[in-house]
Amino acid sequence: MTKVFAIANQKGGVGKTTTTVNLGAGLARLGVPTLIVDLDAQANATSALGLEKTPGRSLYPVLHGEAAAADMVVTTSTKGLSLIPSEVDLAAVESELAQGENYLGRLRAALAPLIDSGAHKAVLIDCPPALGMLSMNALAASDHLVVALQTEYLAMEGLGQIVGVVEQLKAAGAGDRLTLGAIIMTMFDGRTNLSKQVVDEVRKHFPDKVMDTVIPRTVRLSEAPSHGKTIFQYDAQSPGAKAYAALAKEFAAKFGLK
Q1: CA of 145: how far to CAs of 191, 224, 227, in Å?
Q2: pTM score, two decimals?
Q3: What was the pLDDT predicted at 192?
Q4: What is the structure's pLDDT at 168?
Q5: Less Cβ crowding at N or C end of the chain, within 10 Å?
Q6: Would you say domain 3-254 falls under CATH 3.40.50.300?
C-alpha cells in the first residue's frame, strides 16, 4: 500500500527540500520505489535532482483537470526515484484553488489514480514554505505530516503552529487520514549547546515522533543541490550522506515501507 507524506514547515531555510530529496533518494537506494512531488513554485526539489523547470511540466494542469498526474512523472538519475516536477505556473494555483469547489481536496483527488496504481511505495510531497492553499492540499492528501525542524531557538514555536493546522484540517474533515508522523531534526551543530537543547526539548514534547537520526549542518549538503545531485551522488562518504542513509533506514522501518 502506498503511503503519502507531506514534508512541511511554514518557515523557509530549514532543510525541508534537502530532506525531501535525500530521504527520497535514500529510500530508493533501499529498494523502496519512491515518488517526490515538487509542490513549490520555486522548484528547488526539481533543480536539486538535476532537472530543468519546463513550462507545463508540473501539477498545474493536473489540478485544473487538464492532465493526469501520471503524465507528469519523470525518472531521475537515482534508480527507483521518480519526480513530479514544478515550475513557476504553480504559483498561480494558490489563489485559483480558493475559488473552486472542494478546494482542500483537489490535490488528493488529482493524485488518487497515481497512488492507487501502487507504482510507488512512498510519495513524498515537498511543500511550499508557507501554510497556504497548496500546503493545506498536501496535508489533506497525505497519511502523515513529516516536519523538517531546524535545531534553532524558534523551532518549537513554528512546530506548534503546524501541529495546530493538522488538528484544524481533521476537524474540518479534510485530513481524516492525516497524523503527525515524524519530526526530523535538521541543521544540527554538535559544537553548540543550543542545538542539543532544542533536540532535547522537542523530544520531551514529542517523544515518539522525533526521529533518532539527526541531520548535521554541513557544507556538502548545501553544495549538492547546486550540482543537481543528491548527497549520495555528490559525496557518498560525507557525514550528510551517512546521516540520510541512516534516516532512510529508520524511516522505512517506522512506516513499514520495506
Answers
A1: 30, 25, 28
A2: 0.96
A3: 86
A4: 86
A5: N
A6: yes
